[in-house]
């Protein structure tokens, strides 16, 4: 008997229900949509459409991968962030909804400022989610976007082209721990969602993160703080007086990062919570 949309959906849900993912039916439907190139309503309006064997094979492979923890976004190839659609592939961290809090805070502080250019530096480009949403929503912004991973810069450049933001972004391939890039402007904002998981804790993360997302984007050194320490102590080299330093942090790093900023002469420091009421963002201004 040949498979139909409905039978595939049921088979997929049965398999993914045995996993820890909390929305098997949504995930299965999205995978079906991806394979048939249809939107989600179609799954409900065409339950009896026959699906040929080739597609069934692909479906089985993808559901199997997903069952093993392979991130859904790597299968579908994209993720929404700040209302924009980002291409995502292996080698870049999947943008998280919590990071939107960091972006919203920066946009609120800068989208009305009457200055020719708001100069921003994003450290750890990844897919470009932070860089490109700031470039998109802050009209007079210019973003210097740094990543150690060539693969990440490739993905981010693709996203930059899709959003048509080429004139507002400069990508810099660099290890920030070897020094800030030389630029001839003072920055209004330095933003970073750096790797912040202590090296020894990575294996204990959810399997989809630990096994499939890039270690380079997660590993924050022995104490998880290596990037905060480096960036906070060097920020004055490029950050203008009153310029904003804005970090995403791990849920238990609020106090330590706040202290780091205090020790390095930052003012107006705020620790901001995420949707699950965990500390997630720390911001401060250069004195
Ligand atoms: N937020 C990621 C996680 O859930 C970690 C991202 C990072 O290290 N910046 O594991």
From TrEMBL:
Stored HAMAP family: RF_methyltr_PrmC
Keyword terms of this UniProt record: Methyltransferase, S-adenosyl-L-methionine, Transferase
Reactions mediated catalytically: L-glutaminyl-[peptide chain release factor] + S-adenosyl-L-methionine = N(5)-methyl-L-glutaminyl-[peptide chain release factor] + S-adenosyl-L-homocysteine + H(+)
Keyword Lipid biosynthesis attached: no
Organism superkingdom: Bacteria
Name the record gives this protein: Release factor glutamine methyltransferase
Source organism of the structure: Anaeromonas frigoriresistens
InterPro entries membership: DNA_methylase_N6_adenine_CS, HemK-like, Methyltranfer_dom, N5-glutamine_MTase, PrmC_N, RF_methyltr_PrmC, SAM-dependent_MTases_sf
Family listed: Belongs to the protein N5-glutamine methyltransferase family. PrmC subfamily.
Residue numbers binding substrate: 193-196
UniProt record, GO biological process: methylation
Example of a GO MF term: peptide chain release factor N(5)-glutamine methyltransferase activity
This enzyme's EC code(s): 2.1.1.297
CDD domains from the UniProt entry: AdoMet_MTases (cd02440)
Annotated residues for binding of S-adenosyl-L-methionine: 124-128, 147, 193
Domain Methyltransferase as annotated: residue spans: 115-193
Annotated Release factor glutamine methyltransferase N-terminal domain residues: 8-77
Biological role: Methylates the class 1 translation termination release factors RF1/PrfA and RF2/PrfB on the glutamine residue of the universally conserved GGQ motif.
């Amino acid at each position: 008997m040949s498979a139909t949309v409905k039978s595939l959906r049921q088979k997929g849900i049965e398999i993914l229900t045995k996993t820890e993912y909390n929305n098997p039916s949504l995930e299965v439907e999205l995978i079906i949509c991806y394979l048939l190139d249809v939107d989600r309503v179609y799954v409900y309006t065409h339950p009896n459409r026959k699906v040929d064997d080739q597609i069934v094979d692909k479906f089985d492979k993808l559901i199997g991968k997903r069952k093993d923890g392979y991130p859904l976004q790597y299968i579908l190839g994209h993720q929404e962030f700040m209302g924009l659609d980002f291409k995502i592939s292996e080698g870049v961290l999947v943008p998280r909804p919590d990071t939107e809090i960091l972006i919203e805070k920066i946009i609120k502080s800068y989208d009305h400022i009457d200055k020719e250019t708001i100069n921003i530096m994003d450290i750890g480009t990844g897919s470009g989610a932070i860089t490109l949403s700031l470039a998109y929503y802050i009209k007079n912004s210019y973003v210097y976007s740094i990543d150690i991973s060539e693969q990440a810069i490739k993905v981010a450049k693709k996203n930059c082209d899709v959003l048509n933001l080429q004139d507002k972004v400069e990508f810099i391939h660099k290890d920030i721990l070897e020094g800030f890039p030389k630029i001839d402007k003072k920055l209004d904002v330095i933003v970073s969602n750096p790797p912040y998981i202590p090296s020894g804790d990575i294996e204990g993360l959810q399997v989809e993160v630990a096994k499939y997302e890039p270690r380079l984007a997660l590993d924050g050194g022995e104490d998880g703080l290596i990037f905060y320490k480096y960036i906070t102590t060097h920020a004055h080299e490029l950050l203008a007086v009153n310029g904003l330093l804005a970090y995403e942090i791990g849920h238990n790093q609020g106090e330590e990062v706040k202290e780091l900023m205090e020790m390095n002469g930052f003012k107006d420091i705020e620790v901001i919570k995420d949707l699950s009421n965990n500390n997630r963002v720390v911001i401060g201004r250069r004195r």
